[in-house]
Please model this.
Amino acid sequence: MKPVLCFLIFFFNISILVGQTFDVEAIKVSGDNDKRINLVFMGDGYTLFELDKFVTDATNFSNSLFSQSPFSEYADYFNVYAIKVPSNDSGTDHPGTATDVTEPHNIPISNVDTYFNTSFDTANIHRLLYTYSSSIVYDVLADNFPQYDQPIIIVNTSEYGGAGGPYATSSTGNNANEIVIHEIGHSLFDLKDEYYPGDGLASEAINMTQETDPTVVSWKNWVGTDGVGIYQHSGSGNATSWYRPHQNCKMRYLGVPFCSVCKEGIIEKIHSLISPIDNYTPNNNTVDNPTFPLDFQLDLIKPNPNTLESDWTLNSSNFATNVEDVSIEATNLIDGANTLTVVVHDGTSFLRVDNHDSFHVYTVTWTINYSSLSVDDIESEVNSYNISMFPNPTTNVLNLKFESNTVSDLNVEIMSIDGKTINTSKLSNYESQQVDISNLSQGVYITNFYSGNVLIASKRLVKN
Model:
């Protein structure tokens, strides 16, 4: 333990630093911060003279992240920044209190003066490198980059260590890049470890379950593909009642890819945070005195390769497909209010939405008020939808729910394969609804979701 005087000096130094602003360096900028997922690196245990090393470390971590799937495909959805926070000392604490190794383990016991108070031996686990000084972490973010989506603390030590949680933490030694990616899997994308994480952390999740029926397990859409199955966690006791989707995923081992189930979960979280519609024109509330042809355009955040698909309808009739701009002539319009809508969704093979609980769609709607003399005005509105339909397949009851920023209701239509309407219902925003399908014959049906008269999504329904 440090002498009391040193502790008081340390406490005073921290208290005057809280609220201080630091230099912020952009590492990767793909677009406006309010339209991207912002990863923010902060360093602990880097002295003022080591901040260039911190930026280099953060850049290396960023480059490694976006070299691996699915981040390589969705790199343009992210910005990356580094906040240069100096510490008084290099390194991090190692109190030597771990019970899972013989201490001191690899590095001497130490107690150093760092800004965020990171430490090995968290919860008596040597490699658990973390800090409970969350107020300091969030003060720095609030004062320097309040638009953060995921904080990542890089600790200036070569000893292996890291942790997930509200902020991801990693050392800089061997496998450090892999640690960061793994911990971001926890912190931002809600993925579980695919080695058994312990009874306190075991729970139903994207890639963890106690369900063993391959027809209803949450990753049923992937079972039998790309090595996905239902694999029992090794060990004894409660571990034997939990299962993972893959035997060789990054959430289990460093240096290997994410499994298909985790990739799907990552991409779905990306779509829940950021719309692929970066901009659109006309994009103000009202366009006065426009002339023909009327031009409408999307500016999309495209995956690489581009897997975004679009459907344009004019007055509920198909107008164009998989294009980013259209032109409308006077002959395309009727007198009065005309509605042009484009629906955008991601058709990537990384997502298997037919048998999945939720999916995302995004729309822009322009209302064109036309008379025989001229277009009076054009009004625009953008929207996004998170639609849930589960279980699928199902026997008796289908659960429906959607979330949207502006739309109050969706119309839902269940149709047979030959085009006959079987069931119609109205679904209210943020409210769950159950549809009784027990009287339907076994087979495949189509569930259509309409906003007004515009079809925004279709999903296959399997009745057992």
Observations:
- The domain at 4-187 is CATH 3.40.390.10 (Collagenase (Catalytic Domain)).
- The longest helix spans residues 51-65.
- The two ends are 66 Å apart (CA to CA).
- DSSP finds five helices and 23 strands in the chain.
